[in-house]
């Protein structure tokens, strides 16, 4: 447990909108028919997440430092891409967390005020301990989340009557295709989170007395990564068994959406399940909000420092807090403008993330194949073949989606 850290931080960041919202919606709308999309999305993104952790463990530096070695144009382009998505990502996860908090605790505050409170609480946690506090807190959150969701799944299976249809479908038109791309965009997470994992892995190396080597780092990564698949399937099962065929249409307002989500579970499982579902939902979204709020200014600060000159701890820390303030301001602007359209906000964020996937996939592949990567730490031929097939799959779906828009 001492060695595990960055992998669970990744899980905490990933298990959020993609799981609670998108996986549940997939089950509610399609039953088990999109199981293939959840599984293939996780499998196809695996190599590019693994490459980032592999590079950091082998080189002792983040992939951002590696990107800088690849050319002067890479980090500025990374900053532009991240700047284009960071506020939408943070706003989406924060608004969902605020909506859940309003309903669960019976708050009279609106989404904007509650979002400010959520962000303020996260800021307090990060300011008192940064990585070390985050490392310890997220382990408890993931354990609570996994146990509470598993119990809910067991009861849902026990109460379900009738046959279960496992026929798989491929939506190819209209809203079905848009939802499929949105589901895959953040399942388990956008590939730019590989940069977050890399930064956390570097922080783990600096904050642990044990040897956080390549073997340990990959074990840690795999624990976190495959946990996201287990939890995704939990929420897909819950959505399928509890909501499928109900005819309920999700509201675009954060507070109403949270109420619908929890009430659908409690109406089927019983009122006794309200605390269980509430804990599962709130820990899911709070962990995502917290980890995103740490990671986004962390990677933007590091990328800015590396772009402008040589790295130093002082410059990195200063840039972290500057970007933290920028992130908080931009997030509140987005939430204020789109507080009544949370579902649409989530959809935009997830689609943007999916369309930038090929860029990060190529960068991470080139890093582990490049001359600066130690030979013994390079991925084997089988993993490279796997990454080529994965890229074709992800790039192909991006092309299909873009073409369908026209």
Explain how this protein is built:
- It is a single chain.
- α3 runs antiparallel to α10, α5 (74-105) packs antiparallel against α12 (274-308) and α15 packs antiparallel against α16 (381-405).
- With 406 residues, the protein is an all-alpha fold.
- The N and C termini lie far apart (50 Å).
- The longest helix has 35 residues, at 274-308.
- It is globular and about 60 Å long.
- It has a single domain (6-405), classed as Amino acid/polyamine transporter I, CATH 1.20.1740.10.
- The protein is 79% helix and 0% strand.
- The relative contact order is 0.22.
Beginning-to-end CA distance, first to last residue: 50 Å
The pLDDT mean sits at: 84
Top CATH class = Mainly Alpha
Structural class: mainly alpha
Report the CATH superfamily. Amino acid/polyamine transporter I
CATH architecture annotation: Up-down Bundle
Largest β-sheet summary: none
Which shape, going by the Cα principal axes? globular
**Hey, roughly how much beta strand do the residues contain?**
under 5%
Question: How many β strands by DSSP?
Answer: 0
- Compressed to H and E, one letter per element, the order equals HHHHHHHHHHHHHHHH
Estimate percent helicity.
Answer: over 70%
């Amino acid at each position: 447990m001492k060695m595990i850290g960055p992998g669970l931080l990744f899980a905490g960041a990933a298990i959020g909108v993609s799981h609670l919202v998108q996986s549940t919606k997939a089950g509610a709308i399609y039953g088990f028919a999109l199981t293939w999309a959840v599984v293939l999305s996780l499998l196809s993104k695996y190599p590019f997440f693994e490459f980032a952790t592999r590079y950091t463990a082998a080189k002792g530096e983040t992939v951002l430092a590696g990107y800088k070695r690849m050319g002067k144009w890479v980090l500025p382009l990374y900053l532009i891409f991240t700047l284009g998505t960071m506020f939408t990502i943070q706003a989406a996860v924060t608004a969902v967390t605020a909506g859940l908090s309003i309903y669960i605790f019976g708050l009279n505050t609106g989404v904007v005020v509650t979002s400010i409170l959520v962000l303020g609480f996260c800021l307090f946690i990060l300011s008192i301990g940064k990585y070390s506090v985050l490392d310890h807190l997220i382990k408890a959150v993931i354990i609570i989340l996994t146990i509470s969701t598993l119990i809910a799944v067991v009861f849902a299976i026990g109460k379900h009557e009738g046959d279960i249809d496992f026929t798989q479908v491929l939506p190819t038109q209209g809203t079905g295709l848009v939802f499929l791309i949105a589901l895959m965009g953040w399942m388990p997470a956008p590939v730019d989170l590989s940069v977050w994992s890399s930064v956390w892995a570097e922080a783990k190396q600096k904050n642990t007395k044990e040897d956080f080597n390549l073997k340990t780092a990959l074990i840690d990564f795999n624990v976190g990564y495959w946990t996201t698949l287990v939890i995704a399937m939990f929420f897909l099962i819950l959505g399928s068994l509890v909501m499928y065929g109900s005819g309920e249409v999700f509201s675009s307002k954060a507070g109403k959406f949270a109420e619908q989500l929890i009430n659908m579970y409690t109406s089927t499982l019983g009122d006794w399940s309200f605390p269980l579902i509430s804990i599962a939902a709130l820990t899911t979204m709070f962990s995502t909000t917290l980890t995103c709020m740490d990671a986004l200014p962390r990677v933007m600060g590091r990328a800015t420092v590396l772009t402008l000159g040589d790295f130093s701890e002082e410059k990195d820390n200063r840039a972290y807090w500057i970007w933290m303030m920028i992130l908080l301001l931009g997030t509140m602007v987005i939430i204020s403008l789109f507080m009544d359209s949370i579902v649409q906000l989530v959809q935009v964020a997830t689609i943007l993330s999916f369309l930038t996937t090929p860029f990060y996939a190529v960068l991470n592949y080139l890093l582990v194949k490049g001359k600066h990567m130690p030979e013994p730490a390079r991925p084997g031929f089988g993993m490279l073949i796997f990454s080529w097939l994965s890229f074709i799959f992800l790039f192909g779906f991006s092309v299909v989606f873009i073409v369908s828009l026209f």
